[in-house]
Write a structure and sequence with these properties.
The structure holds 2 protein chains of 2 kinds. By secondary structure, chain A is an alpha+beta fold. Helix content of chain A is 53%, strand content 15%. Chain A has a 3-stranded antiparallel sheet with strand order 1-2-3, with no helix packed on it. The longest helix of chain A is centred in the C-terminal third of the chain and has 34 residues. The two termini of chain A are 13 Å apart. The N terminus and C terminus of chain B are likely disordered. Chain B has 2 domains: 47 residues, Helix Hairpins (Orthogonal Bundle), CATH 1.10.287; 43 residues, TATA box binding Protein, subunit D, domain 2 (Roll). Classes of the chains: A alpha+beta, B alpha+beta. The interface between A and B is large, with 86 and 86 residues. β1 of chain A pairs parallel with β3 of chain B, so a sheet runs across the interface. Chain A: This is TFIIA-domain-containing protein.
């Protein structure tokens, strides 16, 4: 069990996930900047949890700060405003902004037209047949779908936790109590009991103990 | 392309790295940048990536002893709750934990709940 391997392993996991979903993002016509934003915010959140020492990240970037700029973009819908809100997003906001602008403020014809071209260049070719109309329909569907499908995500989480979580937990942290409750997630190879002695061979575990993460391949208990 | 990859456990989503990914995805969904289908795809990739990375890259071993308070085996998932546990790490470091919960899924099998495992 080791805490030192955590940062490298997490690094690898992040890289694997990001590179493996890149094609999925492209197929769905999502700009690659969104994927980069996902990676950034994921990394920032992990660093903020301080489960291990991550090199090159002693200071904790505020993970929530990115949410506000986006909200501002939605309500204003103006390119100028958005450019100054792009601090956390770097230049990629230029690509995202047009879509938003078209969605919220379609009256700004010049901006809208320009933005659609920008959006389509970035792989949005499939779902926008006729300018802002198509765009708006698309995003409206997205918004509607968000509610119901989000539920599906949480359902899936619940399915997972039904298996391994008890209903009568002691009230000290359920699923969300990950940080407070010391927990080991792993696979088991063998579980044996002789009288009152248990012998378990546990594999590939992630242990979260006292707010730090530890990894191990093998654990005998 | 759209085939669900069900042969990986979702249990690691409850680890800190998984929770942070879920949070990050939630934010992107709420801000309308991605849809939940894509988020699920990302989580599936995460299940896969963490499983293979743990198996491949982590060599550390450890020992755990403690008082087993209760245990449960349901759908091939073991849950142990151990009190006053002592964890011995590789570098002879010893961690004392008051209470620790161990959730263990069966090795090298598809997740029992997801079904359709290859």
């Amino acid at each position: 069990m080791s805490n030192k391997v955590v940062s490298q392993t997490y690094r690898n996991i992040i890289d694997d996930v990001i590179s493996n979903v890149r094609q999925d993002f492209e197929d769905m016509g999502i700009e690659k900047e969104v994927l980069e934003e996902l990676q950034r915010s994921w990394e920032a959140k992990i660093v903020a949890t301080q489960v291990a020492e991550f090199e090159g990240a002693p200071a904790l970037p505020p993970p929530r700060s990115r949410q506000q700029p986006k909200a501002g973009v939605k309500s204003d819908g103006r390119v100028d405003v958005k450019n100054e809100t792009s601090d956390g997003l770097d230049s990629d906001s230029d690509v995202k902004q047009p879509n938003k602008a078209a969605r919220i403020d379609a009256s700004d014809d010049a901006t809208a037209a320009r933005s659609h071209r920008g959006g389509q260049q970035n792989g949005e070719s499939s779902t926008a047949p006729s300018g802002s109309e198509g765009k708006e329909r698309g995003s409206a569907e997205d918004d509607i779908g968000t509610g119901s499908k989000r539920k599906r995500i949480s359902n899936d989480d619940e399915i997972g936790s039904d298996l391994d979580d008890s209903d009568e937990d002691d009230g000290e942290g359920g699923i969300e109590g990950d940080i407070n409750e010391d927990m080991v997630l792993c696979l088991y190879d063998k579980v044996q009991r002789v009288k009152n002695k248990w012998k378990c061979v546990l594999k590939d575990g992630v242990a979260s103990i006292d707010g730090r993460d530890y990894l191990f391949t093998k654990c005998n208990g | 392309m759209a085939t669900p990859r069900n042969q990986y456990y979702e249990l690691y989503r409850r680890s800190s790295i998984g929770m942070q990914l879920t949070d990050a995805l939630d934010e992107l969904i709420q801000s309308g940048h991605i849809n939940p289908v894509l988020a699920m795809r990302v989580l599936n990739e995460f299940d896969k990536a963490i499983a293979s990375n743990l198996a491949k890259n982590v060599k550390a071993k450890s020992n755990l002893k403690g008082h087993l308070r209760d245990y449960r085996l349901c759908d091939e998932v073991w849950t142990f709750r151990v009190q006053k546990a002592t964890l011995k790490l590789d570098n002879a470091e010893i961690l004392d934990v008051d209470k620790v919960k161990i959730v263990a899924c069966k090795m090298a099998e598809g997740p029992p709940a997801a079904g359709g495992s290859k």
